[in-house]
Write a structure and sequence with these properties.
By secondary structure, the chain is of the alpha+beta class. The chain has two domains: 52 residues, no CATH class; 60 residues, no CATH class. It is built from four helices and eight strands, in the order αββαβαβββββα. β5 and β6 form a beta hairpin. It is elongated and about 50 Å long. The mean pLDDT is 94.
């Protein structure tokens, strides 16, 4: 099960995405940087006030991304594909496309799209 990278996890938190996930990027203040931890460590993480970010999975991001968005009275439907080892996600309305986001990890491609939608206020909070 792949999860979004630390950079995208940080950006999603900055954009106000609820920090509820199966996995978390955690900095234990041990000089080793961030590492992934399962949610069963969340009490300890919060109790120790360790810096942490939700490492959203493909499924979690899929639940957050709308199947369609409306821009200027046009309905854009979400599409995704995998080609030459990269996952791609975009919204399309006829021949008009919103930007396409690609990555080797599907979770990162989805996270990039979610960041774009939130930054451009195409969706409200998730």
């Amino acid at each position: 099960m792949n999860k979004c990278n630390l950079e995208l996890a940080k950006r999603l938190k900055e954009l106000g995405v609820k920090q509820e996930s199966e996995w978390y990027w955690v900095n234990f203040n041990d000089g080793k940087g961030f590492s992934l931890r399962y949610r069963d460590c969340l009490y300890e993480i919060k109790h120790n006030n360790w810096e942490h970010y939700s490492a959203f999975t493909v499924g979690e991001l899929g639940e957050m991304l709308p199947e369609e968005i409306i821009i200027e009275n046009n309905t854009f439907v979400m599409y995704q594909s995998k080609h030459k080892g990269k996952y791609a996600i975009w919204y399309c309305s006829g021949l008009v496309y919103e930007p396409t986001f690609e990555d080797e990890l599907e979770a990162n491609a989805r996270a990039k799209m979610l960041v774009y939608l939130l930054e451009n206020k195409l969706i409200k909070e998730v």
